[in-house]
Specification:
The protein is of the alpha/beta class. The chain has a domain of 97 residues: Barwin-like endoglucanases (Beta Barrel), CATH 2.40.40.10. Helices cover 48% and strands 22% of the residues. It contains 2 helices and 6 strands; from the N terminus they run αβββββαβ. A 6-stranded mixed β-barrel has the order 1-5-2-4-3-6. The N and C termini lie far apart (111 Å).
Amino acid sequence: MRGKMLIFLALLCAMLLAAGWMAQQAQIIADERARLQQEILTLEAENALLREKVAELREQQETLGDRMQGWLDEWEVDAFEATAYTLECGYPWDDGITFLETKAVPGYTIAVDPEIVSLGSDAFIVGLGWRKAEDIGSAIRGRVIDLYMGSGLEARAMANNWGRKAVKAVYQK
């Protein structure tokens, strides 16, 4: 009988140990479930924020698309031949006043064909920067930009050194 009692007690201890282990495992599972539920709530909140951001970005994309289309309707990018001129290249009575009746400014004023580039408009010449289409010239036809270099011997030397160069320009139609 004593042996049976010992076996019974051993089994009872084993069952209690197993029950404790199972309770511990149940607690681990419950803790993991709670952690995962919290993570799900966090992810759902982040997902809601991302959906809002996507909607905002789609709205901005439409706005940018409209602005870009407006820009494309107004501006053109093309290759030009760039030449240079000085005050002395004009007529003897030339006083440095442009076709638009502004004072020609070296490094700023350009002469263009108004059939290609609108007079008074801005033009960005790659490698040179922004210029203003304020003048025309008898030899400026088609995609030619004439850069005003100023007056005097130094300007004349700069114009001669410039020669003719191919450039790209962004300009108003």
